[in-house]
Amino acid sequence: MLQDSLALRTDRLQFFPITQLGHMMKPFIESFLLLFMLLNPFLLIVYLVDLVQELDHRAFFRILNRAALISSVIFIVFALIGNLIFEKLLQAHFASFQIFGGIIFLLIGLQFVFKGPDAIKNMRGNPKHIAGAIAMPIMIGPGTVSASILAGQQLNPQWAIIAILLAIGLTVVIMLGLKRVHDFVRTRNEPLIERYVEIAGRIVALVVGTYSIEMIMQGMAEWLIILK
């Protein structure tokens, strides 16, 4: 009888961590995937196409790493104390942030539709000082900030930080790989690459513009609920 009781307790001790890990992994994977999809390296590389074309791999790597570091710090801060930032420090509703962020992305999308990749280049300025400009507003926006806050709500701090770093790390790795592919293909068929970038950029601008309107409308809807 005693042996059966000890065996049962041992089984429970062995099963408990596995069960806890299973419950934790689902929100972890969901948080990671949401942030990664919102970062979307395949869209980011189009917005940074002028840097991809002008900079060598090492310089592009340095700038991208700085932007990733800035973004990581901001995402982690919002994951840990995001609600306090809006409610206590800023004393503002997140809906206002959604509306303002939507307007920014709408302006970027409009510039890209009418002017192409040169529009983003003109807004960022000198490539030597653009790590912050890449981080904000290209990587850091209402969508990614919202995903960071959600990760902080669903996960404990350690796992939220890991999910954020993993999403940003994978984004950087994919973008560096796309830079390699671009450099390899461009030397063989430059006109095709430039034509593809032009078309893809304008299509991406339409998607971003549509998403920006959605953010503005969501922010307005939240405000209507608040006013009621």
Q: Kindly give the count of domains.
A: 1
Beta content: under 5%
Q: How far is the first residue's CA from the last residue's CA?
A: 64 Å
Q: Give the SSE order as H and E letters.
A: HHHHHHHHHH
The shape, in one word, is globular
Number of distinct beta strands: 0
Rg (CA only) = 22 Å
Helix percent reads over 70%
Helix/strand class: mainly alpha
Q: What's the tally of helices?
A: 10
What composes the largest sheet?
Answer: none
Average pLDDT number:
76
Low-confidence stretches: 1-18
Keywords:
disordered N terminus, mainly alpha, 10 helices, 228 residues
Question: How does this structure look, described?
Answer:
With 228 residues, this protein is mostly helical. It has one domain (28-227). It contains ten helices and no strands. Helix 4 (57-89) packs antiparallel against helix 9.
Could you give a quick summary of the protein structure above?
The chain has helices at residues 2-39, 41-47, 49-54, 57-89, 94-115, 117-124, 131-139, 142-154, 157-186, 190-227.
Question: How does the SSE layout of this entry go?
Answer:
Blueprint: H1 2-39, H2 41-47, H3 49-54, H4 57-89, H5 94-115, H6 117-124, H7 131-139, H8 142-154, H9 157-186, H10 190-227
